[in-house]
Amino acid sequence: MTLFSPKTAVVEREGWDGEAKGLAHLVDGQLDTRHGAILYLEEVCVSFDGFKALNHLNLDIGVGELRCIIGPNGAGKTTMMDVITGKTRPDSGAVFFGQTIDLTRYREAEIAQLGIGRKFQKPTVFEAMTVFENLQLALAGPRSVWASLRARLTGEQRDRIEALLLRVRLQEQRHRVAGLLSHGQKQWLEIGMLLAQDPRLLLLDEPVAGMTDAETEKTAELLLSLKGHHSLMVVEHDMAFVEAIAERVTVLAEGSVLAEGSLAQVQADERVIEVYLGR
Ligand SMILES: Nc1ncnc2c1ncn2[C@@H]1O[C@H](COP(=O)(O)OP(=O)(O)O)[C@@H](O)[C@H]1O
Ligand SMILES: [Mg+2]
Predict the structure, then answer these.
(1) What is the reported pTM?
(2) Which pLDDT tens digit goes with each residue over 20-52?
(3) Which of 11, 79, 107, 222 is the most exposed place for a label (fewest CB within 10 A)?
(4) Which of 52, 68, 78 to mutate to test the pocket of ligand 1 (most atoms within 8 A of CB)?
């Protein structure tokens, strides 16, 4: 087995195998972030039976930024992620990846290929396979499971898996069946699987829900280590966690942005206090 070499760090694009990802090449050529933002939402509206889940939402995320999104239940946080990833179509408004890619024109699977990874609340790893095999499958992309597992790994692919194991702190667990991992370890494995696709933008919905304090702390370190290499949007209720990772925090309420700033700034904002106290 090849030893981990810093040259093959997860975040480097050089050693990256983009074969099975036709659309990824399109992004490499076209993702225009000259204005410094990787994601723009403009006047986005989504209604469910007349109820406005998103109501003229405006938001943008900078390249390499780690943005935290907070807000009371029902504020529209998950719906916003659904719109970005193509699961829900907005009734109106614009959703752009870089300056030029209109995400509303793409399907869910295409958006993933464009370089937007999403971590749902529940971990969805292959429980019967080892940690290593899970990463191997994620690296192979949308090929059949058996073809992927049978294929001989190149040295480069091994290096990438080693780098991913190190990144998500699962080197010691590499040969464990994923079903036997703790909840936190499963979440890290899934983050590792998303990183295998080398996303430009990573969306995480309540990544530390159900984690122990020690796991939460490790997750904070992990996300901080990704900042700069990937752009991240993290929805989270755990304020200690938000405090550990946040630079800029956006508060959503009733489907639009209520406040934005440092955590201290938004926590001191009267309107934010009001929505959290439910007055
Ligand atoms: N598929 C759906 N059909 C009907 N209502 C929905 C649907 N998805 C979300 N909603 C409603 O939209 C609002 C925003 O939900 P959500 O985006 O899940 O909020 P958050 O993630 O901030 O808690 C809630 O009132 C929710 O009940
Ligand atoms: Mg939600």
Answers:
(1) 0.87
(2) 345 555 565 568 887 789 999 999 999 999 999
(3) 107
(4) 78
